[in-house]
Amino acid sequence: MFGFEFIFFLMFFLVFGVIIFNIIRGIAEWGKNNASPRLTVDATVVTKRDHRTRHRHGNGHYHTSSTYYVTFEVESGDRMELHVSGSEYGMIAEGDRGKLTFQGTRYLSFERYI
Fold first, then answer.
1. Do both 42 and 65 map to the same domain?
2. Phi, psi angle pair for 58, to nearest 5°
3. Are residues 25 and 61 both part of a single domain?
4. What is each CA distance from 62 to 66, 67, 86, 91, 96, in whole angstroms?
5. Which CATH number do you get for residue 96?
């Protein structure tokens, strides 16, 4: 009986600790992005990717969600992968060149050259 209670509380605090850690990390990244300057630079779209997750609900139904990322290369040769919305993801193609506006790790916009 003691072993079960110990393992239960250990797992509870472990899961709780991971949740708290992720919340703190998210708040720190949000604050760092807000403190960063907004930059607009010439960039080329190197690649795009999406990450799909599938969740099964108790009633047997599934829910799928997608997260979209675009990797940009700036004039210095540095690359950065930024999270973009689904509509932005659909409008951007690999090889596009344009003006990338971002703030820290936060994507703001991409205007293609015509």
1. yes
2. -60, -25
3. no
4. 13, 17, 20, 28, 35
5. 2.40.50.660
